Amino acid sequence: MNNPQLNKHGELQHLLSTEGLPARIMREILDRAATFLDEADGHEFKKVPLLHGKSVFNVFFENSTRTRTTFEIAAKKLSADVVNLNIGSSSTSKGETLLDTVDNLCAMHADMFVVRHSSSGAAHLIARHVAPEIHVINAGDGRHAHPTQALLDMYTIRHYKKEFHNLRVAIVGDILHSRVARSQIHALTTLGVPEVRVIAPKTLLPTHVEKLGVQVYHDMAQGLKDVDVVMTLRLQNERMQGALLPSAQEFFKYYGLTQERLALARPDAIVMHPGPMNRGVEIDSSVADGPQAVILPQVTFGVAVRMAVMSTLAGNTP
Ligand code: CP
């Protein structure tokens, strides 16, 4: 089947999803990201001219702290010109369509779009619409995909655990509404993690989730036993329709990551969270701020991974 992310040479043309993204390309991005991080200098980022003369447009139709900011830093470290479109004060509020907005930004000579949108498929739509030499990066579309989050998560896991082939990974929480979880599952299975678990109440799991190659647990004590990596997720209240849970307090009682529950994982297990975190709902503060948490390093690695994605795309022609 034709992969809309790849050009005719099998190289990355757009980054839309980790589903169908070859392991070879994921590994190249992780390796390239490592070259931008100066480990000897406290994780400083190198400034390089790889996007000099290029214009990157950050077009975020949904709120963001980490993704939008780290894309901006990454683009500037690559020497690009960066434009952050403020959707709140843009003409979309006057009824302009998504593609008309994109056409106008193309007329300003955009070379790359970084797009976040509440509708699944928005980044695909833009990628199909723009001229072949323009690259599109999905920065999160509805509940569908968040590929750069998953890639920075893979970078983080590799940084702390070195290999993928010997790991047991648990993803905990609201899998149903999470674009992050879907992208993580595709990335983990593609990179050869032999055991990926999802832990959630039935109401927060997609039907037939096991077809994605994961093991399903409804009980935290069973699901966390002997895992190497715990990936926690926020309750995505903005995407919930109807009451799927009695309350946030009830969720924490059964699915909150506490120190007692984390003790069931391997002693050297790492705790990850894509952010934003809701303390006391999916994770206890003592875990979020504890020695096993790598939540802030995830953000730092995100800059390097986004530098790697943008510079990879910029080096590829249609
Ligand atoms: N992880 C993540 O996407 O965070 P933001 O919503 O702050 O970008």
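^ phosphoric acid mono(formamide)ester complex. The chain has a mean pLDDT of 94. The pocket of phosphoric acid mono(formamide)ester is lined by residues 64-67, 140, 149, 274-276 (CB under 6 Å).
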